[in-house]
Specification:
The chain is mainly alpha-helical. Helices cover about 65% and strands about 0% of the residues. The chain has five helices and no strands.
């Protein structure tokens, strides 16, 4: 079993705390997957495909895309989000503005 770094846990917790109100209306697994993927993007982790994370948690990548686009970006009135893959830099910028990442 692979272990996550302490930094991954700290950033995940900060993202969950910041965006919980926006993500709380979905299932626990989709919320957890969304936070995991946002953390991976913030930390520039690319060795695990997003689709693999989603499959392991039992939902589609489009479910996470929906959460990020409709529950976070649209609610915060941030334009230009298309998909997780094409909007990685926009996601990083959002997280860095909202979470204290060293």
């Amino acid at each position: 079993m692979k272990k996550f770094s302490e930094e991954f846990g700290v950033i995940s917790e900060a993202i969950l705390d910041k965006f919980w109100v926006l993500l709380s209306s979905t299932t626990e697994s989709v919320a957890a997957g969304t936070v995991c993927i946002l953390t991976m993007i913030a930390m520039d982790i690319k060795k695990h495909p997003i689709s693999e994370i989603c499959n392991n948690l039992g939902f589609t990548q489009s479910a996470v895309n929906y959460q990020i686009k409709n529950k976070i970006f649209e609610k915060l009135h941030i334009p230009d989000f298309k998909t997780i893959t094409s909007s990685r830099e926009l996601i990083k910028e959002l997280i860095k503005k909202n979470i204290d990442i060293k």
